Amino acid sequence: MSSETSAWAKEQVCGDRTVKAVLREIANWARPDGLVEFLSVKRIAAVIEVSPRTVQRCIAQLEEPTLEHPGRLGLLRRVERFREDGGQSACGFVLLGYQPPMGVVPRDNLSPPPDTMSPPPPDKMSGDPVTPVSPLKRDKILPPSEPNGSEAPTAKNDDSGELDGAAPRPKAHPLPEDWTAPPLRELGDVSRGLVMQWPSGAYETVAEQFRMHWAAASGRTSRKTNWAAAWAKWLITEHDRVMRAARAGTSFSSSAPATPLGPPPEQAPVAAKAAEDDRSAIVHNLLERALGSRTYARWIKPAAITFDDGGAVLTFSSDFQKSYAETNLGPAIAVALARSATPGEPSGIKFIVETPASPANQEALRDQRAA
Q1: CATH 1.10.10: which residues of the chain?
Q2: Global pTM?
């Protein structure tokens, strides 16, 4: 359990006392990095004294907003887990918007704390009880003197400026340019169990998204001391999106890169690109400069940018493409649309997935493109 996550949950505005109670109970079981590995709905319901159905409703309200449910709070992401027989197991959760403190080291939150109050059994050799050592003082005990009365050795600085006997603290650094996703056998139990449920090609596709995202990132958050832990957390947070895309019939094999650093795969454009105009071309150019040619070619170039009475409409070929662009590229898209707009024009942005056209409509689109 983490006092940091509990304090974070206490400050959130939920608009409903039951929803707030569910959030605080989930945060009470979170690790310092904001991840809850296992927590069942029945346990939450028993603690806050409501029905499991009420807990499910509150969790849904805490999850990320969607087109069908735009009023959700976006404070929580559920990570579904399934047993080998296909049944659903206890879910995991990720606290969205929570920023762990610097230097946090994940610890075991489920095991009970050791009993440091009761003294240990007496020493069998002398019969005298051994004085218990408080965990807060254990690191401050000085080593005993040498038998000849000389002083205990002290830490000294060497030529490199580091203390003798003390390991240097790792420094935060950007994602290495030659980073590649590790084999599944090198992942932790939680992330490996989730990835094993993914369809073929999804792991490679998500790895490419991870690499492109952090290669283009800037600021303090773009530098990390442990990129392996960041990759494991990325897999956990992407699990629900990958599974939704798989259930919708998205094929990841065609979008997975042949090598992590190879050229981006060529994506077939959507049929709605036939309706683009001059302003669409301006927005495309702005986004290519803002995102870089690789990210633009992978996510934006195949999509259509059109306009209606409500503002811009971005049409993608799959729900997976739409979700990634809306979540990761949304701010850049909003800036490009604002720069291309004239005073008085609608400023709304809508992300949609293109529905397959009938054979007659497809033939009409081909004729329109040929003309």
Answers
A1: 3-95
A2: 0.34
